[in-house]
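Q: Structure tokens for this one, please.
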Amino acid sequence: MSFLDKFRQGAEKAAIQATAFARDGSSKLASESRGFVQGFSLPGESEKAAKILESFLADPNRPQSALNAIPKAVLQRARGLAVFQVLKAGFVFSGKAGSGIVIARLPDGSWSAPSCIATGGLGWGLQIGADITDFVVVLNSEDAVKAFSLGGNVTVGGNVAATAGPIGTGGSVQASLAHPAPMFSYSKSKGLFAGVSLEGTVLIERKDTNRDFYGSPIPARDILGGRVPPPEIASKLYEIIEAAEGLDESGLPQEAYIPTATGEHIAVGSGEGYQVHDSTVFDAEGH
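A: Here is the predicted structure, written as tokens:
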């Protein structure tokens, strides 16, 4: 049995468990856990990623939404984006499984075709229930993009830093980009979850899924390097990015903050922000 088959079986079991936990308390989580399993193909992942990313970015028709979105400046200088969803379920001990895509910005400013990624892990601690979390990881450096290009693992708990990214507008956002961490992480969580867990996260290339869509075993470095034409199924994703990058921020208050795990907001520039909350090692062949 291939890794992808094992991963799919594990995710399906997690989705069933999450649905059972959520049945009495959250029909929304139950619906999303079923959709999670249905999105394993690259077209499904691209559609899911577009919806996730849209929820993190400002709506061009509502400029005020930029005050609670990934900053335009962060998006404009991004070298890549990883967008994925993680389903977590458990009682004391927990398991998680997730999937999504990564894209890279090409030298001409356009975006590469998507490469599928997967994540999984075990956790422990006071944890009861189920939770679905959406993630957007902004890759701020070519080294970060390279890690996803080499077909290896990206594992939380190493020596290349990822920090919570800023949200909002203004000069403090620009200042945070002077010497940014290799990656900015953003997350939105919904559903039923109680307590704190300690767990490791591994992101890997889903080679089988890429092969099934592109028709041959094309490595991630070729997909993210622009050697594969961007597919039509990812057009919505590109349109959302382009619209957010073109947002008119003139006249908006200059307010930016960093969200914390407890739901508090730390103002950017307060001296408390940009502490490394995750460290990440890129464990990839040849890196």
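A few notes: Confidence is low (pLDDT under 50) at residues 14-35, 191-200, 271-287. The chain has nine helices and twelve strands.
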